[in-house]
Amino acid sequence: MNWKYDPRPVDGKPASNTASAELYYHMFYDPVIYQEAADKLTESLLTIKKKLLENEALTEQEEELKEKFFRNDKEKGLIIVNRRVDDYLKYKGFRVLVTDSEKDPVKAWTAYADRWRVEDAFATLKDRLGCNRIRCSDNKALQGKTFVQFIATGLSLMVRSRIRCYMKENKKAGKLNLVYESDAKILQVLNNVMQTRFNHGYYFDEVAGKKIKYFEALDVRVPGAGPETPEEVPEEPETEPLLGTDIEI
């Protein structure tokens, strides 16, 4: 769209709108966001109904929800109006991304997601590791915290890089579309692949469906369902590190 705007707005004066710019509006639908909103609303409405049946007082916010989504029925009493719920949730899964530089929707979303990951990484450093106010007992603990975050960030970058390569190579192959899947969501799905160890080895639970596609996208071998014996790794002789020697990882 062609957006007209005032390049030099002044308080108290009407906008001139003499300048213009070409903007791109990208619309995306995320079923996860929709479902989260639906679950939250359903839980709130059921809580209200339970409180009313038990003659408990409602909060101010619950009173507003009651007026908006309930009605009195002569036979059934107070009921939830499904049409109002549907209207409220109608656009909950949609997101609009505005840009003046990228026409391709996938590239625009990828750039937005990458910038958001940078912000999330800083939030992790500040909130989870407490790096906005260092609360470590000594320098060794601080170094440990920072190193753990460094490893986690590196793994996250590897996951995203492999997903991009997979999508680029299989764009026309009709395979799993992972463009809008977050690293955290993919790893969360794979996090419940259980391993059982015993005296002579170990085995994994069966991996099927979407999980197989995730392993394929990450270029990681799918764990087998049968017993496997770990390969014996020869022990390396212990060596003392040389001071002043650079180590490349």
* Main sheet: strand order: 1-2
Tell me the total number of β-strands. 8
Largest sheet entry: 2 strands, antiparallel
* Integer average pLDDT: 79
- Report the end-to-end length measured between terminal Cα atoms: 49 Å
Strand content: 5-15%
Order of helices and strands: EEEHHEEHEHHHEEH
Flag low-confidence runs.
241-249
- CA gyration radius, whole angstroms: 27 Å
Q: Can you offer a commentary on this structure?
A:
By secondary structure, the chain is α+β, with helices and mostly antiparallel strands. Among the domains are: 29-89, no CATH class; 103-174. It has seven helices and eight strands. The longest helix is centred in the middle third of the chain and has 31 residues, at 139-169. The chain starts with a strand and ends in a 32-residue tail after the last helix.
Gist?
With 249 residues, the protein is of the alpha+beta class.
Topology of helices and strands:
Elements: E1 2-5, E2 19-22, E3 24-29, H1 31-53, H2 60-69, E4 70-73, E5 77-80, H3 82-89, E6 94-99, H4 105-128, H5 139-169, H6 183-190, E7 195-198, E8 201-204, H7 210-217
From the structure above, extract its key features:
45% helix; alpha+beta; extended; 7 helices; two-stranded antiparallel sheet; 249 residues
